[in-house]
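Chapter review: from sequence to fold.
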Amino acid sequence: MGLLERLRKEWFILGIVLVIAVARLEPAVGVKGGPLKPEITITYIAVSAIFFNSGLSLKTEELTSALMHVKLHLFVQIFTLVFFPTAIWLFLQLLSITPINEWLLKGLQTVGCMPPPVSSAVILTKAVGGNEAAAIFNSAFGSFLSSWQDPAKHAVQMVVPWCLPG
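The C-alpha cell string follows.
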C-alpha cells in the first residue's frame, strides 16, 4: 500500500491530528467567543449536521433492523452508564491516596459520569465500517437516559461521602 493510498484510507485520523496541531499553534481561533464561535457552531450546528447527515445516509430498514438488537443495546448502555463510571470511581479511589489535586479528581469523577459525545461515537463507528444505525440509536438513547441518570449519580456522590475521593 502506497503512502497516498494509506493517507486516503486514514483521512479521518489524519484530519484529527491536523486540527490538533493547528489548535496548538493558534488556540485563539477556537476559544469561546472567538472567530469560530464554538459555543454555537459546535453545540448546535456541528451536532445537528452529523445527525442529519447520518440520518440521510441510513435506510429505514437498517434503522429498524438495528433497533431489534436488544442484547447489543443493553450491553452498550450498561457498559457506558454503569461499568465505565464504576471503573472510574475505583480508579479515583486509587488516585485519592496520591498527592493529586482534589479538584482534578472531582473533575475526572464528573467526566466519568457523563455519556460519550454523540457526534464522535457516530463518526468513529462510521469511519471503521461499524453498525452506524446502532451507534446512532445508542448515542441518542444513552444521552436521553443520562439526562436522568447523571444528576442521580452526582446527588448520590454528594450525599454519600465515601463516594467522593479525597
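Two observations follow directly from the output. Residues 162-166 have pLDDT under 50 and may be disordered. The longest helix spans residues 132-159.
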